Amino acid sequence: MKKLCNTKGFTLVELVVTILILGILMFLVVMRIGSFSETAAERTCEYNRRSLLSTVSLYEADLKVNGKTLTNDMLDLDVDSSEFNQKFIQGAKPQCPDGGIYSIGYFENGEVSIYCSVHAPKP
Ligand SMILES: [Zn+2]
Asked: 3-class SS at 117?
């Protein structure tokens, strides 16, 4: 006569514990991937701001060659008809991956600051 007790396969407790452990691992992986994409967005934004800073330096040098001086209102990214946007940005205005809005601050001492409303807000 055969035994009725099944010795092969997993018990219900073993299956529940395995599914629980897999669930915890999936949760950790999802959290990790989320932080990676956040870091990528911040780095892209930082790159965009550095790129804008270089562009402002080029514009400032171009103005100096022509005997003009840079002022804060010449750097408004929202004025599409400005010389800065026409000549240097050329319709390729950088976009913050998180939807932040860039603005440029030019100070009389020659210091330039690039702000992002999400990642580097104005102080
Ligand atoms: Zn940003």
From this structure: coil
In the reported structure, the alpha carbon of residue 104 is separated from the centroid of ligand 1 by a whole-number distance in angstroms of: 13
- State how far the alpha carbon of 36 is from the alpha carbons of 10, 30, 31, 43, 44, in Å: 37, 10, 9, 11, 12
CA of 35 to the centre of ligand 1 (A): 16
- Summary mean pLDDT of the chain: 89
Do residues 102 and 114 touch, judged by C-beta distance below 8 A? Answer: yes
Percentage of residues in the chain having pLDDT higher than 70: 94
Summarize pLDDT for 15-55 with one digit per residue, the tens.
999 999 999 999 999 998 888 888 999 999 999 999 999 99
36 CA to middle of ligand 1, Å? 16
Q: Is residue 122 part of a domain?
A: no
Would you say the pTM of this structure is higher than 0.90?
no
In a domain, 41, yes or no: yes
| Domain range enclosing 24 | 13-116
Any domain includes 27 = yes
